Amino acid sequence: MPFIAWWPEFVRPGISDALVCSIDLMPTFLELADTAPPPTPPLQPAHASNGLNARLAGMKPSLSCCFKHPWTTAATALALVVCCGFSPDPPAASKPASASKPPPPAALPPGHVRGDVISYSHVPIRTYTPKAGLGILPYLMEYYLMKWSGDQPLAAYHAENLRRIDIASRWSTAIMLYARKDEWHDELIRLMIRAFHHRQLLVIRCYHETKTPPDGQYLNCRHILDTLWANRDRELVSPEGQRATGRQLINNILAFKLGDEGECGLATAGLQRVYDDYNRQIRLRRLDGEQPFRHIKGWYNMLGYAALNYDGCYAASRADIDQHHRVKLPPNTQAIGVDVYHYWFHPSSPFDPANLAIPRARVRAHSDEWQRIRTRYYPEGLRVGVCTNSHDPKTWTPACWNDTHALMSAIDLAGARDAEMWYIGCCGQLGPSKGGGSTYTTPVETMQAYYDHLKAGPWTALAWWVFGSDRTCHGGLEYYDKTLQHYTPQHPEGEAYSPAMLDYWHNAYVDAKMRMFNDVVDRQFNNLNASPPPP
To answer: CA 407, CA 429: separation in Å to the nearest integer?
Structure first.
């Protein structure tokens, strides 16, 4: 029978050909309507929602149901016709006479939002499959944010890491931390409290070790979670006096990063083991009768489909596997990402984007052209395949390079029903680098182009490589701190920018990041944050 639901923000437009049994839906509808069936009904339908109500955590819409046949006998129950209309304020005539208007959802404290769990954050934690992710981009984060070294306790960098969290929290919705060493445990929890204070979700790097037995995987992160769970109802206090319970911190963890760019060696079975071990050791662990970490996604990251010379790893089609020995994603894939960087290399850039005499529209047009090939979403569809001779400009087409459609096809090929797409894009610059590897400073127009194109497609997370500098890679913190160097063909070793130009880079960088943040918080998710969009 036809079934139509309208529930803004929670039911996305679409058509499904899934089989639905109306008698199994009845208990869910009645619960959403805050009512109950008559006593001792002749049939006991299965509860169709399973985890639905737990996921919605009280997000009950106004609901009206009209029943053509009452629950009086098994025969009439089998003939049941349900017509349900979800509306902000259903007319009284559409309700059964005995039903009262359902109460509004329970109010949450300021700053809390409902998703798979109730978190203190700007955006909810939910699983956004590629179709569900079209047109939104909730998770913004800075990669390589923490300052650390191999020969110092992490606490030695406490003040600097607080400063970095405070800066990045202005335009991020998630803070990325690194559980490199088990002895960083206490300091990481202190930093988590600071990020929580800023309504930031948490992403923690905790890599799968190929030579470690399954029971030994993700130990550093498991120890952190064990501490938080043991203190789930107790407030943990940072040295600065900020507070969060263990459960609040757990509920603000969005993902653990499980690995990076090794899927060629792992192959399908290896990547499946990465996720299997993660599910077993963390996500599906049962403690005290609960599964408190079920909402925390596992994130693995790969090289782009075309890689550097059409030698990428993952398969977008069966032909990629049979003819090009590409790797099929496993069906248990969760958050899966790629990193592809639009650096302005000297030999291939049409001009130096630091030359402010060049109209910014030309800078943006060059950035959009790169995105047209690599990340643009084509609603009409795009079939991507492995190409040859990457030095031939005739092959520089979306059909050879586009990661958006390649990864969508790879997820579909894998049958990975819970997979969502994450991306790492570049800000900053390279230099001084050997062999002509230095680049111009990445303009903010390139960063904005990343955001706009990824948001239009199925991507739901954008991490910026990098924030703190990493050897010859200079990141966002240098824009903010006004420490950028100008790398040019004449000065590949770098020369000082003028104070006026450093002011420009700082202001343009902050303005661009704030535009993205405001678009997420005040436009895409303004219903959660109770703040109107800016003019």
So the answer is: 27
* pLDDT level of residue 107 (50, 70, 90 thresholds): confident
Length, in residues, of the chain: 535
Characterize 300-327 residue by residue with b for buried, 16 or more Cβ atoms within 10 angstroms of its Cβ, and e for exposed: bbbbbbbbeebebbbbbbeebbeeeebb
d(CA 255, CA 295): 8
- pLDDT tens for residues 293-331? 999 999 999 999 999 999 999 999 999 999 999 999 999
Count CB atoms within 10 A of the CB of residue 246: 21
The secondary structure of 483-535, three-state, reads CCEECCCCCCCCEECCHHHHHHHHHHHHHHHHHHHHHHHHHHCHHHHCCCCCC
Closest CA to 227 of 209, 204, 251, 249: 249
Q: How does residue 10 score in pLDDT terms, banded at 50, 70 and 90?
A: very low
224 in helix, strand or coil? helix
Q: Within 13 Å and on the Cβ side, how many CA atoms surround 374?
A: 25
- What is d(CA 164, CA 191) in angstroms, rounded to the nearest whole number? 10
The reply to whether the predicted model has a pTM over 0.90 is: no
| H or E element at residue 169 | none
What is residue 164's three-state secondary structure?
Answer: helix
